[in-house]
Design a protein that fits this description.
Length: about 210
């Protein structure tokens, strides 16, 4: 049996979930909570497999309750079941430890399937929740894969070929002083200490062709 706690501050929602979950032969509702504090207390007491967690509740919201339950019961799965689909709610819920995120308009049979997916170690997210997480993931990536100017990249390209400052200056038709300034800027922007580290960084991050190519 999959032991489930329902946490929602709306009585009608709890009743509806309870009625449906009882129709599933492998589900057992072992507790109901009307706020975040109660959800934490019940979860600690009965140690459920799954908590269906509302997001906005009195005393403590679903995110706070999720964080606390996961702290003491790391193997309990939290399924956020809410009406909110924006990133300001989705991302904090997942970061707090929610294993899944679904909207309350989910079809009953799909909800049953989602609960079973949780027990298999999957992380079922509604399409809108997945979209918001994907956006957040993209924004977390560095906006400047290559922080160098075009001229600094030219200097770095020559540097990776093992050329001296004099040779780089000759190739790019600039003074050695200018090359030294560019190299200093490159070291600072790439957070490296010497020419070897700069060359390795350039190859690893695709900032220029590896030494000996092209």
């Amino acid at each position: 049996m999959i032991r489930i706690v329902i946490a929602d501050d709306h009585h009608v929602v709890r009743r509806g979930l309870l009625f449906f979950l009882k129709t599933q032969k492998d589900f057992e509702v072992v507790g109901e909570a009307k706020d975040g504090e109660e959800a934490i207390a019940i979860a600690r007491a009965v140690k459920p497999d799954v908590v269906l967690m509302d997001l906005v509740m009195p005393t403590k919201d679903g995110i706070q309750a999720t964080r606390e339950i996961k702290r003491v019961l790391p193997h309990t799965h939290i399924l956020m079941l809410t009406s909110f689909s924006d990133r300001d709610h989705v991302v904090p819920a997942i970061e707090a430890g929610a294993s899944g995120y679904q909207l309350k308009d989910i079809e009953p049979d799909e909800l049953a399937s989602v609960i079973r997916q949780l027990m298999k170690g999957e992380k079922p997210l509604s399409p809108v929740a997945q979209t918001e997480l994907d956006k957040d993931s993209q924004e977390d990536k560095p906006h400047l894969t290559n922080p160098l100017t075009a001229r600094e990249q030219d200097v770095l390209a020559e540097l990776t070929k093992g050329k001296s400052n004099k040779d780089i200056a000759s190739t790019l038709f600039v003074t050695e002083k200018t090359v030294k300034t560019h190299i200093s800027n490159i070291f600072s922007k790439l957070d490296v200490q010497d020419r070897t580290q700069a060359a390795l960084y350039a190859v690893k991050h695709g900032l220029t062709e590896p030494s000996g190519k092209g």
